[in-house]
UniProtKB/TrEMBL annotation:
This is Glutamine--fructose-6-phosphate aminotransferase [isomerizing]. The keyword Nucleotide-binding does not apply. It catalyses: D-fructose 6-phosphate + L-glutamine = D-glucosamine 6-phosphate + L-glutamate. Its EC number is 2.6.1.16. The lineage of its organism: Bacteria, Pseudomonadati, Acidobacteriota, Terriglobia, Terriglobales. Homodimer. It is an enzyme of class 2 (transferase). Residues 296-435, 469-617 form the SIS domain.
Length: 627
């Protein structure tokens, strides 16, 4: 996840870009850079620095540059260390083309070898540098056949060679007052002003200059000049994109046209999962790379146990993480409510590893649990969404999630990002401890990489269905959510989402405990949401599924109204229950990422129908910073 801001127009470009980058610095903090040009000079000036944006600002004070068009970048490192050399923008061999990039080029090694054979010299460890050289080579190839390619045409030919996710901004000294943008995956927004044009990764980066915004779709390109913006697809066909006039204040503008932040954040989950994964897995070897975690492999290999502390939704993620870690890495895991941890005289020592999970990194109870773990001699790792938060400053290592700012009080994309980070941690731990074969690791990495696309398709399929279900169940006084194994934490989370924003009493329960109390609650007025998913290739999953079918029959025999979450093509479910929401197939440990989404949507639509304040539910705050 990186931040991009670009400008072309009459203003001095450097202050415009720096201001935009400050507003997007949450998207990247490993390094920063800027490239600017001025018509008639025939060159581009570049300044870069490792670390946060303030470091680049210091470089600019010492070596100032100026111009009327340019592009800037704040980086989250994927390929290559966070050094000045690896900071964006990246140049071609001639220095006349510069590129900034958000995303990952999956086939960069193949392209790099090809370009080296053609005489190109690379100076960085990044995948992005390949793009600049590829554009240069495309241009040279055309000149060798006595053809002249515009920058736009050269970028178009280059992006069709790229595999992966990318948002690009490209400048050329040969075409002043021009920025070329392209999108395939990560977001790109275009802004229009009077005699000026803007590009950014997100609206807040340019909102203080213009409220006329265009959101690029995947496969879109844009050519920006002071006179205006033209849009084409990757085949060069002209396209029309609607200009949206943003009338809200900057915080409201971040809704991107959605009615509520929560709904926007539900739909952002594929991107958040992808961004949390990018640069951390190899689809060649199946290896997981968590070098930025900052904890030595020996500490992971020799740990005797793991103690996890978290609150609320993060605690549900922690419970799911327990299943992942114990199954893959074969190490015992305890999960505590952070608010209870230090009051139970916990057992922790230098051989145990502490894991703290928090979206904000400032939750008081979680910080207190961390201090207790450290006082007992344990090293701690934080899973956090906020760079530089307190929990990360005290931790021995950190795994950042890349959900981006989450405004809605009811957590959605932060939760699925935490699940993703926990899965990566479990895989990494298993690899360090020698508990997985290379083939097993590769299979799980490949399956994880497929989750965002599956989630996008599922969101489109189930949104209308959950809205219809909300009409039928919004007047219910109580809900019961049931799940087994790793799906029990998802039942807890589904119930929490409903009670948080709709104020309906909801309870999550292990399905196997039905006979120990919950059966007494079931009658014809009680909606029962059952997580009845399965991975047919997993013997344990199949057994769990069969037992869950029995639980469903217990409910229907007592006239309970069942909403089942099931994997597609589970035909027997439809014969047992009133309503079925289908999700795509996935391995057992990855099914939670998919099955939680319809539960979030169901809670959202019920709350809307009940007239509740979805984004700011009563009596709740986003981050609990006091006990």
């Amino acid at each position: 996840m990186c931040g991009i801001v670009g400008y072309v127009g009459p203003k001095e470009v450097v202050p415009v870009i720096l201001e935009g980058l400050r507003r997007l610095e949450y998207r990247g903090y490993d390094s920063a850079g800027i490239a600017v040009g001025c018509k008639g000079q025939g060159k581009l000036s570049v300044r870069r620095a490792p670390g946060k944006l303030k470091n680049m600002e210091e470089v600019l004070r010492e070596r100032p540059i100026s111009g009327c068009y340019g592009i800037g970048h704040t980086r989250w490192a994927t390929h290559g260390r966070p050094t000045e050399e690896n900071a964006h923008p990246h140049r071609d061999c001639t220095g006349s083309i510069v590129v900034v990039h958000n995303g990952i080029v999956e086939n960069y090694l193949e392209l790099k070898r090809e370009l080296i054979a053609q005489g190109h010299t690379f100076v960085t460890e990044t995948d992005t540098e390949v793009i600049a050289h590829l554009i240069e080579q495309v241009t040279a190839d055309a000149q060798n056949t006595d053809k002249t390619l515009s920058l736009e045409a050269a970028v178009r030919k280059a992006v069709k060679r790229l595999t992966g996710a990318f948002a690009l901004g490209v400048l050329s000294a040969r075409e002043p007052d021009t920025i070329i943008a392209a999108r395939q995956g990560p977001p790109v927004v275009i802004g229009r002003g009077e005699g000026e044009s803007f590009i950014a990764s997100d609206v807040p980066g340019i909102l203080h200059h213009t409220r006329n915004i265009v959101f690029l779709n995947d496969g879109d390109m844009a050519r920006l000049t002071p006179e205006g913006v033209t849009f084409t697809d990757f085949d060069g066909q002209p396209i029309t994109r609607k200009v949206q006039h943003i009338t809200w204040d900057p915080i409201q503008a971040e809704k991107g046209g959605y009615k509520h932040f929560m709904l926007k954040e539900i739909w952002e989950q594929p991107r958040a999962i992808r961004d949390t994964t990018l640069g951390r897995i190899s689809l060649d070897s199946g290896q997981v790379f968590l070098a930025e975690m900052g904890l030595a492999s020996e500490d992971l290999a020799t740990a005797s146990s793991i103690n996890i502390a978290a609150c609320g939704t993060s605690w549900h993620a922690a419970l799911a993480g327990k299943y992942m870690i114990e199954r893959l890495a074969r190490i015992p895991v305890d999960v505590d409510y952070a608010s209870e941890y230090r009051y139970r005289d916990p057992i922790a020592d230098p051989t145990a590893l502490g894991l703290l999970i928090t979206q904000s990194g400032e939750t008081a109870d979680t910080l207190a649990a961390q201090r207790e773990m450290m006082a007992l001699g344990s090293k701690t790792v934080a899973i956090c969404n906020v760079v530089g938060a307190m929990v990360t400053r005290d931790a021995h290592g950190t795994i950042y999630t890349h959900a981006g700012p989450e405004i809605g009080v009811a957590s959605t994309k932060a939760f699925t990002s935490q699940i993703t980070a926990l899965f990566l941690f479990a895989l990494h731990l298993a690899q360090v401890r020698g508990k997985l074969t290379s083939a097993e690791s590769l299979h799980l990495c490949e399956e994880l990489s497929r989750i965002p696309a599956k989630m996008i398709d599922m969101l489109k399929a189930v949104s209308a269905q959950t809205e219809r279900l909300a009409r039928d169940f919004s007047n219910a006084r109580d809900f019961l959510y049931l799940g087994r194994g790793i799906h029990f934490p998802m039942a807890l989370e589904g119930a929490l989402k409903l009670k948080e924003i709709s104020y309906i009493h909801a309870e999550g329960y292990p399905a196997g405990e039905m006979k120990h109390g919950p059966n007494a609650l079931i009658d014809e007025t009680l909606p029962v949401v059952v997580l009845a998913t399965q991975d047919p290739s997993d013997a344990g999953s199949r057994l769990r599924y069969e037992k869950t079918l029995s639980n469903i029959q217990e409910v229907t025999a007592r006239s309970g109204r069942v909403i089942a979450i099931a994997v597609e093509d589970q035909e027997e479910i439809g014969n047992l229950v009133e309503h079925v929401i289908s999700i795509p197939r996935a391995p057992e440990l990855l099914l939670p990422l998919l099955e939680i989404v319809p539960l979030q949507l169901l809670a959202y639509h019920i709350a809307v129908r009940r007239g509740c304040d979805v984004d700011q539910p009563r009596n709740l705050a986003k981050s609990v910073t006091v006990e």
